[in-house]
Amino acid sequence: MKKILLLASLFCATMVCNAEKVTRVDDFKDGESKFGFEATATKKHSISMDGEYLVITNKKDDWYMAGVRFPVIARSNFTISYKLLLSKLNEDCVYGLVFNYQEDEENPEKSTGDIIYITENKFYVVDADGTKMGKSQKIKLKKGKNVEVNVTVEKKNKKTLISINGVDFVNEDLNIKTPYMGFIVNEKNTLKVDQIKITQNVED
User: Fold this and answer.
1) Whole-number Å distance between alpha carbons of 115 and 95
2) Secondary structure (3-state) at 108
3) Largest Cα–Cα distance in the chain?
4) d(CA 100, CA 127)
5) Which of 18, 96, 102, 109 is a plausible cystine mate for 184, CB 3.0–4.6 Å?
6) pTM for this prediction
7) CA distance 59 to 108
8) In the chain, how many H helices and how many E strands?
9) 146-163 residue pLDDT tens
10) What proportions of the chain, in percent to the nearest 5, are helix, strand and coil?
11) Cβ within 8 Å of residue 132, ≥6 positions away
């Protein structure tokens, strides 16, 4: 029996050793996105990379959602951290992080996904049908222009841990099932993304 337990312990230890922590970073240097965002411009919206930021601009009084396939294994636990710069922030300006993104190529305005919405004084999560998942959480961000916001989203088994400027929350309803993720901007606003960093343990 002791030999069996010893072998089991050695096997578990070997599995832990073989689990490699992999970090991938997109910092949009040289005007390119390592994660696959592409520059585009229409009368309604634009995406560009200026050598420092991923710049997503919505030119109309509606919503614009942009997403790609992130280099992450969605069925396993992972952590994504974002450094964001919001062009302006008040009670009417809303920005969001999109998960389980589903693109509508013919009508981009109809693209869907589960979204973490961020406003000046709260954030909340909705599914692709617009149904709120969990309760709205109060936060207090600096009002004004070019507001810096740091967000971390961690998938931990069946829970999603969300941290906004160091304030931690737990959402048990958001289930990140696919690697397709992105951003959403409302009205005539601009979201700048300074960096996206993904950390995940990957077994050999």
Assistant:
1) 10
2) helix
3) 71
4) 9
5) 96
6) 0.85
7) 14
8) 1, 15
9) 899 999 999 998 889 999
10) 10, 50, 35
11) 124, 125, 126
User: Which DSSP symbol is given to 13?
Assistant: H
- CA dist., res. 174 & res. 125, Å (int): 8
Mean pLDDT of the chain: 86
Tell me which residue has tokens 């450094």: 83
Whether 34 contacts 26, CB under 8 Å: yes
Helix, strand or coil, per DSSP, at residue 109: helix
Two structure tokens written together for 167: 């304030």
Angle at 76 (CA atoms; ends 150, 74), nearest 5 degrees: 70
Domains of the chain: 22-203 (2.60.120.560)
Angstrom distance (rounded) from CA 156 to CA 93: 30
In 9-121, at which residue ranges do the beta strands (DSSP E only) sit? 19-26, 40-41, 45-49, 54-58, 63-69, 78-89, 95-102, 112-118
pLDDT tens, 14-73? 334 456 889 999 999 888 999 999 999 999 999 999 889 999 999 988 889 999 999 999
Neighbours of 171 (CB within 10 A): 19
DSSP codes of every residue in 113-172: EEEEEE-SSEEEEE-TTS-B-S--EE--PPPEEEEEEEEEEEEETTEEEEEETTEEEEES
* Cα 158 versus chain centre, distance: 17
C-beta separation of 27 from 198 below 8 A: no
Q: Is the separation of the CB atoms in 56 and 183 below 8 Å? A: yes
